[in-house]
Specification:
Number of strands: 8
Number of helices: 5
Radius of gyration: 42 Å
Structural class: alpha+beta
Largest sheet: 6 strands, antiparallel
Helix content: 10-25%
Shape: elongated
Strand content: 15-25%
Distance between the termini: 125 Å
Length: 232
C-alpha cells in the first residue's frame, strides 16, 4: 500500500452559507481516474469514516467523483466543513485538491431491511423481458421450439365471409349524405349511386379492362332542358 497523505485545509473562501438544507450525503469531486484503485479509495473511505458511520460509499470513476451517505446528518455536515478542500498527496506526485459538496438526501439502506430492494432498479417482468433491446437473458428452463411455417392461405375463411358481408352492406347503403337539413327544414344534399341496381345484372356480362362498364352503357343521363328564351 503506497504512503498516502490526506490533509484538510479550511479556508474562508469556502465558507458554508448560513442557510443550508440538512443532508446526509456528500459528493467528492475532481477525483482523477488514476485514483480509483482499492488502496486510494479505501484510504479516503477510512478518512471520512472518522467523522461518522458511513451507510453508502459509491465511487463513480466515469464521473470522477465519489458519493458517500452517512447515517447521521450531523456527521455529513462536520465532514463537509472539515474536508472541503481535501489535499491528497501520493509519493512522487503533485498534491491533488479534491472538493467536497453537499448532495441531495438519500435513504438509509439496511441489509436486514426487507424494503431495501424497492429503492433499486429491477429488471422487467419475464413477459416484457424480450421487448427490450438488446433482450435480457432467457428465463431458467427456457428452450427454443420449432415455429410453424407462415399461413399459406391468403385470407382465412372467416375473414373472406366478413369482407363479403361488408360489401353487401355498402351496396345497400349507397346513398351518401353531404348536407342534412336542420330539424327537417332546409336544403339537403344527397349523392346516390344509380348503378347499384345494375351491378348484379352486370356481373353476368363479360367485361374487358379498358372498356366502359356495361351498367353505364345501359344508363343514359337525362338531358337538361334549355331555359325559355325571350322572343323579340
Amino acid at each position: 500500500m503506497p504512503d498516502i497523505s490526506i490533509l484538510t485545509q479550511r479556508a474562508n473562501s469556502f465558507a458554508s452559507p448560513k442557510s443550508t438544507q440538512p443532508t446526509n450525503s456528500l459528493v467528492i469531486t475532481q477525483v482523477p481516474r488514476t485514483f480509483f484503485q482499492p488502496s486510494i479509495i479505501n484510504a479516503l473511505r477510512d478518512h471520512f469514516a472518522t467523522y461518522g458511520e458511513i451507510n453508502q460509499w459509491v465511487p463513480i470513476a466515469s464521473f470522477c467523483r465519489i458519493i458517500l451517505v452517512y447515517y447521521a446528518e450531523e456527521a455529513a455536515e462536520v465532514a463537509k466543513n472539515a474536508c472541503d478542500p481535501l489535499i491528497l498527496t501520493l509519493p512522487h506526485r503533485i498534491p491533488t485538491v479534491l472538493r467536497v459538496y453537499r448532495s441531495e438526501p438519500n435513504p438509509i439502506f439496511s441489509p436486514s431491511s426487507p424494503t431495501a430492494d424497492e429503492n433499486l432498479l429491477r429488471p422487467p417482468p419475464i413477459e416484457k423481458n424480450f421487448l427490450i433491446s438488446p433482450p435480457g437473458s432467457p428465463p431458467i428452463g427456457w428452450e427454443q421450439i420449432r415455429e410453424e411455417p407462415p399461413n399459406a392461405t391468403p385470407l382465412a375463411d372467416d375473414l373472406i365471409a366478413a369482407l363479403h358481408k361488408l360489401k353487401l352492406q355498402e351496396r345497400r347503403s349507397s346513398r351518401e349524405v353531404l348536407l342534412e337539413p336542420e330539424e327537417g327544414v332546409g336544403v339537403g344534399v344527397y349523392v346516390e349511386d344509380c348503378d347499384m341496381n345494375d351491378d348484379d345484372d352486370a356481373e353476368g356480362v363479360d367485361w374487358e379492362y379498358g372498356c366502359p362498364s356495361p351498367a353505364k352503357l345501359r344508363w343514359k343521363p337525362i338531358a337538361t332542358a334549355m331555359p325559355p328564351m325571350r322572343v323579340r
